């Protein structure tokens, strides 16, 4: 696994997306990429 310094931005992004997804009535942006890009 990569260093925490490299993984932190991805962790924040994932957490932010998860929190947004939890909110009722909030739809994902149509221009947001559907594929998850996994480095490594």
Blueprint of the fold:
Elements: H1 4-22
Notable features of this structure?
40 residues, mainly alpha, 1 helix, 48% helix
Write a brief caption for the model.
With 40 residues, the chain is mainly alpha-helical. Helices cover 48% and strands 0% of the residues.
Kindly describe this structure.
With 40 residues, the chain is an all-alpha fold. The chain contains 1 helix and no strands. It has one helix at residues 4-22. The chain is elongated and about 35 Å long. The model has no long low-confidence stretch (mean pLDDT 76).
Instruction: Count every helix, treating DSSP H or I runs of 4 or more residues as helices.
Output: 1
Tell me the series of helices and strands, N- to C-terminal.
H
- Terminus-to-terminus distance: 9 Å
C-alpha-based Rg, rounded: 12 Å
Largest sheet: none
**In percent terms, what proportion of residues is strand?**
under 5%
In total, the number of strands is 0
Specify the helix fraction band: 40-55%
Low-pLDDT residue intervals, each spanning 5 or more residues: none
**Mean pLDDT across every amino acid position:** 76
